[in-house]
Give the backbone structure.
Amino acid sequence: MSGWNEKAIPDQSGRVAVVTGANSGIGYVTARELARRGARVLLACRSEARGAGAGERLVAEVPGAAVQFARLDLGDLSSVREFAAAYPYDRLDLLINNAGVMALPYGTTADGFETQFGTNHLGHFALTGLLLPALLETPAARVVTVSSTVHALANIDIDDLNSERRYRRWVAYARSKTANLLFVHELARRLAAHGSDVVAAAAHPGYAATNLQTAGPKMAGRRVAERFMRVGNRFFAQSADAGALPTLYAATAPDVPPDSFTGPSLAGWRGSPAPSWRAPWTRDDRAAPLLWAASEELTGVAYDALKV
């Protein structure tokens, strides 16, 4: 992995990729570099204006890129179902579960779930399950879910997944990122049990300058915190281009192991992609199936092809 960068991405011609949250930041860079290597990329974004604008910007940067926008609001399960029902291809080589929200004031999704858990975990759980038939039909497909080193702040509480007892924005975010890793762990286990060659892996960007850091303080009207985040992005964070490398590695590099977690090499903060430390509870073989069962019940999306 040493020195791995976007120039090492193998040819993606003939492959189809879905990238959630592709209108900006790491998602946009991921979509752009996959398109640059020849993939047909579906930009799955909540805002039609921003998604369509990202498609125009991408084609301007990569003339001839095969990109298409489709609306997807991960905080609304009806939108997730509409997106999956309208999915236009008979194959899916890469599903990049990238979109997310971070440290927001307390709120709920359209379906009544705590916003961070509902968007970061349940939305992607439902999306992956609904697109599973296309993934299983595609040789060597991959599902890459973007987590965070912040997962280390908190394990999930299986009895309070929606933070109804007490809400702390950073704990809720950490729990949603732990849920991402438990999802990858259980998905990888089930795929292996069914003899599938689909690879489920995880990645994180380290500290990368994106809109994610400032959204929460801005929503809460916390101007000092918003200003602090902007200063951190400017002087300490690596670029979104660098932050996207672990995701691109997990999606395209040869021999990426199932249930792996790729991040920046320098203390998980910045640098070229490398295996990343993860909290032991993210590979808990008791918690993962419990979260899986709860997620199926909450979303109404059953992974029938991977029943155990």
Observations:
- The mean pLDDT is 91.
- The beta strands are 16-20, 40-45, 67-71, 94-97, 142-146, 199-203, 261-266, 270-275.
- The first strand starts at residue 16 and ends at 20.
